[in-house]
Write a structure and sequence with these properties.
mainly alpha; two-stranded antiparallel ribbon; two-stranded antiparallel sheet; 8% strand; elongated
């Protein structure tokens, strides 16, 4: 399949999605070919189907311009508390990872010693550690000369609510090794 055929297939798939979802179809005629404009289509698909599934409450774009002013010492204390919980989860996850890795190695070693030919794929993801993100944010606050800070909704989400763009990955990976992470993020092996 050449590049033109792949592009045509991609545009046909986008057209089917647009037709299925009832979104207005935007097309451009170019060299006698009809092209679906993917940028606007992708944005409308995201706004209509994906974004509402991820957001719980008011969409972030509706909060723009609603900045808040907080006392720096309160923000710093919250951020340090979030960092300590994060570090506890990371420490537990590292310990849990080492236990699972050792068990997996022992199990594989037993198989090898028995003379069986078997692959050595373990499927264990390394624990995730984002402590440096907290360290940077804390240091920025410590060196700032103001007693109060103005925060955007996005900054409140990160610094106060402890919801970052990497939180889901952190939770999914570390919950496999840390009971604190599993309890905090609502995941379990059950």
């Amino acid at each position: 399949m050449n590049l033109d055929e792949k592009a045509r297939d991609m545009h046909e798939a986008a057209a089917k999605i647009i037709d299925f979802t009832g979104l207005r179809r935007e097309v451009r005629r170019q060299n006698g070919h009809e092209r679906v404009l993917l940028g606007p289509v992708r944005n409308r698909l995201f706004e209509r189907f994906i974004d509402p599934l991820k957001e719980r409450g008011t969409p972030m774009h509706e909060l723009s311009g609603m900045n808040v002013t907080v006392k720096k010492e309160t923000l710093l204390a919250t951020l340090q508390e979030n960092r300590e919980r994060h570090k506890k989860i990371v420490a537990e996850a590292r310990e849990g990872y080492l236990k699972k890795a050792e068990a997996a190695l022992r199990s594989r070693l037993d198989v090898i010693r028995s003379g069986k030919m078997d692959g050595l794929i373990f499927g264990l993801s390394l624990p995730v550690d984002q402590t440096k993100v907290y360290d940077t944010a804390i240091r920025l606050l410590e060196v700032d000369i103001n007693d109060e800070m103005e925060l955007t909704p996005s900054q409140v989400r990160n610094l106060v609510m402890d919801e970052w763009d990497w939180t889901e990955h952190f939770a999914m990976t570390n919950s496999a090794y840390s009971d604190t992470a599993a309890a905090h993020y609502g995941r379990s092996d059950d």
